Batch of 2 targets.
Target 1
Amino acid sequence: MKSGKKPNKKQSIFIKENGINPDNWFIYKNTSEAMHLVHRYVGKRTHKIPK
């Protein structure tokens, strides 16, 4: 499982604007092009949000 960190308030708002529940996702990579998420409970499920 990829380790991730809990999103801060600004990141949570960005995730919520893209139709994803931020309570269920961790951020494992945050670049200037995209934010990469990993599911908090499943672990293997990932998601990429372009900025």
Target 2
Amino acid sequence: MKKDLGLTRRDFMKLIKPEEQNEIMAAAVNSPALNMWLYKLSLADDVQLDHPDLVVGMEALVLAGVLTEERKSAILSGQAPA
């Protein structure tokens, strides 16, 4: 049976450190694609950590230098920041 990876948007944001949240918002100002990804995320009823759209967006954050690969993996596995 597949593990349910759904979270509320608020619980998803708790996986992202406040300083990372600020960097994400700053990066979105200069990136229409990242800004649109955040907008779509804000419309989601819930956040599925294994959803392809979320994974692609998180990879974009790595490519933009906002998140490390390690942080991306930790967030997508539902691991709260230390």
